[in-house]
Amino acid sequence: MKAISRIGLAVGVAVLLATAAEIKVDLSKEQVGKPPAKFEPIVGTWVVAQEGPDKVVMIDGRPWVASKDNPTKLLLQSARRLYGTSNEELMDNAKQFAYYPVAVLKGVDQFSNGTISMKFKTVGGEADRCSGILFNVKPNGDWLAVRYNDTENNLALWEFHNGMRRNMRFSDRTKPFMLDRAAWHEMKLTVEGANLKVSLDGTLGLEYTLGTEPVAGRRGPPDPDLYPANNAVLRPPVSGKVGLWSKTDSTSYFKDYVVTAK
What we know:
alpha+beta; 7-stranded antiparallel β-sheet
């Protein structure tokens, strides 16, 4: 019986390892002042910074105003590294894409189910103070992102398709997240099939189900791109690259980025 128990335990551990793979981004050997080796910057100025005892990834929003109208060179170089081609469709989206600094995690090509978590700290920004998790990144540059906005004190799920960003869900506006700017905070995205959940410091902030049909609002019928039939990034399953997200001139620190795929 003991032998059977040991075999059963071993099988159980093997199944667990086979169904859950965890990737922790280690920044300890990164060079301060250089772009992070673990992430591929697509838009924006992403560098490694020293924050107390830790090395962190910083999105520096200060150069954004000067560079926002000329993103094509960076996009072209990044597309070649990520997809082995210049990717014309990604280039076509460059103008709008430039408003949202993103960096893609290297080595994770098809995240579909599991969790993505990271810690962030808001540092500065005049127009925006946003920090987020990028996921479901498609080869044409379409993506989903969940973000915290330090000026609105809320969470939101955004989609990017056909060169335009649109909101899919906000957290409850009557219950704002009044976060301490001087402290680190944890954001966690959980993907279970079509179901998305986002928490902030352990508190559930929003939920959304991919494939949900849009409804008419005060401005009339929904945009055609919000119908999942017309927009692959809104159709389950989640399948694509992941990374970090920001907006315009936001400056934020990121660390402890963990992907657990199931």
